[in-house]
């Protein structure tokens, strides 16, 4: 009796897979090696669906790979590859990985064959200086990785990868990963990628985001750390599915952190704080009018566990606050002393109640 277990399906997959990784192969040695492998294993080109050939020495794309007409996944990472032919002409690849090679914009064919099957393309860690427009021929891409290149802008035609009407949203771009490039701005057309779940833009030189980023209703993860952002578009609060928003190492955070030097309070301030703290009664005719006005200018510390007040000498503090229970945003708040920051981890900021807090980063 035939036994259809998961083991048999694993074996099935193994039978369709060739692994040439870490073999120090180059173009000549690969051709011979491949023929021997196919003969020894009684395999034909058409039976093979998955090939791993990463970590070898192929500066040129090994031509024999183009004979595998039923290839679905190919990983040719870490080879020093400088040329890439139209690999989509010969087979219906679903996943193509060519990370950590030496590919430039000149390495690619002018166009790729229009391809409906490719779902994942990974060209991380290459030498692209411009967004490779040819990628937009792979119109059903779901996962696009172009991180760690030197790309200065995202194609204004990126919306081509949003197939809302044509394919019931199943084949629209869901991950766009472009961290570690040289991006300075993001085109508004990114807002057309309606099914995007993750947008990775960290470690670039981005100074602002387009306001129509609010159209990315399915966005869960927005990584913006290590950029030149000074503000965020206020519309970002409309991204109700956002669960991860990284902002560290941007001027909008760093500027406030560096401003947080603590200067000792003046004698005037200390005296005024003592009067307020102990609720000392002072008759108006006893002190000059300017001091009366000064006493009335005091503010309560926002730390609810602190009864303190402050006048001119306040401590600025950035607190990351859960906003609408969905994501965390940095807020600037004022406290009476640095002790209120250290002891402040257990207190909760009441967004609506605290009149001393202002949303400095969303306006
Ligand atoms: Zn305080």
UniProtKB/TrEMBL annotation:
PROSITE patterns in the record: LRR
UniProt cross-references to InterPro entries, sorted A to Z: Leu-rich_rpt, Leu-rich_rpt_typical-subtyp, LRR_dom_sf, LRR_domain-containing
GO cellular component term of the entry, any: cytoplasm
UniProt keyword terms in alphabetical order: Leucine-rich repeat, Repeat
Name of the protein described by the UniProt record: Leucine-rich repeat-containing protein 58 isoform X1
């Amino acid at each position: 009796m035939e036994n259809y277990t998961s083991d048999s399906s694993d074996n099935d997959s193994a039978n369709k897979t060739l692994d040439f990784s870490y073999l120090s192969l180059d173009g000549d040695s690969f051709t011979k090696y491949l023929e021997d492998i196919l003969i020894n294993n009684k395999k034909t080109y058409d039976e093979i669906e998955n090939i791993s050939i990463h970590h070898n020495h192929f500066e040129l794309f090994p031509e024999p790979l183009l004979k595998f007409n039923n290839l679905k996944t190919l990983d040719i990472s870490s080879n020093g590859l400088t040329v890439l032919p139209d690999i989509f002409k010969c087979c219906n690849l679903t996943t193509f990985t060519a990370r950590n090679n030496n590919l430039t914009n000149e390495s690619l064919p002018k166009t790729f064959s229009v391809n409906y099957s490719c779902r994942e393309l990974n060209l991380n860690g290459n030498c692209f200086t411009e967004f490779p427009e040819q990628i937009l021929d792979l119109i059903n891409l779901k996962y696009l990785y172009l991180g760690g290149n030197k790309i200065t802008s995202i194609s204004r035609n990126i919306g081509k990868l949003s197939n809302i009407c044509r394919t019931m949203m199943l084949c629209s771009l869901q991950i766009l990963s472009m961290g570690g490039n040289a991006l300075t701005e993001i085109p508004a057309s990114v807002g057309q990628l309606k099914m995007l779940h993750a947008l990775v833009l960290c470690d670039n030189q981005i100074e602002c985001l387009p306001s129509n980023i609010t159209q990315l209703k399915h966005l869960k993860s927005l990584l913006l750390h290590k950029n030149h952002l000074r503000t965020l578009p206020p519309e970002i609060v409309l991204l109700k599915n956002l669960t991860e928003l990284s902002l560290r190492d941007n001027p909008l955070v760093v500027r406030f952190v560096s401003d947080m030097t603590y200067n000792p309070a003046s004698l005037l301030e200390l005296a005024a704080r003592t009067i307020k703290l102990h609720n000392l009664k002072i008759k108006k005719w006893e002190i000059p009018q300017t001091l009366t006005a000064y006493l009335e200018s005091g503010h309560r510390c926002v730390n609810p566990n602190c009864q303190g007040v402050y006048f001119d000498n306040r401590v600025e503090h950035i607190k990351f606050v859960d906003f609408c229970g969905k994501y965390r945003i940095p807020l600037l708040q004022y406290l009476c002393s640095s002790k209120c920051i250290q002891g402040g981890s257990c207190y909760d900021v009441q967004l609506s109640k605290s009149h001393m807090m202002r949303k400095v980063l969303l306006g």
